[in-house]
Design brief:
PDZ_sf; chaperone; single chain; about 210 residues; 26S proteasome non-ATPase regulatory subunit 9; Pdz3 Domain; five-stranded antiparallel beta sheet; elongated; proteasome; 4 helices; alpha+beta; 2 domains
Length: about 210
Amino acid sequence: MVNMTYQTTSESLPVREKLTQLMNKRSDLESELKAYLDILSANHIGMNEPLVDSEGYPRQDVDVYQVRNARSRVVCIQNDLRALMKEIETNLHLVHSIDGAASQTNTSSPVNQPAPILFNPIARIGEVVVNSPAERAGLVKDDIILEFGPINSSNFKSLQDIASTVRAGVNTDIPITVLRNEGTRQRLVLRPQPFEGQGLVGCYFLNVENVER
């Protein structure tokens, strides 16, 4: 298992704030994308089916104007999301680099020791699959997630935020702060990627309520 410890530094805070803004923008784009996909679904049509009948006339069973507009917006939003995901990935790397460098230079600070918790828990780790990215990162069952990349209790909305961060961070190091049963706070690094099991991580993220801190 990889068990790397990093400190969250003041130098990385501006980048984390930018990441929060990018994540909010991504959430808005995903909501807009869903709205246009719902329009296509309501018309019982996808992105590629013809909008004219066999005689070349506009189809009467769909709202042609609405479908054309929805298809155009879907393509634009998907392109925007791809560009945004790259920017999120770049900033995730930057946070990891800044905090990792600070941890290496500040050797006088104890690691993996009880420390004040700056954020409330946002999730709990369920079962961890053997030989998965989660296991290689050092995650274990019942770890309490305090920070997951740019996500913490100040901007966390639902477990979907974590899922979106995982999808955006494929083959990218995502810094995570966890709280262990013994009360120690640890910084780990998760790299989501395909493996022999299902998904990109190899563990379950569960809702957490009334966690004693």
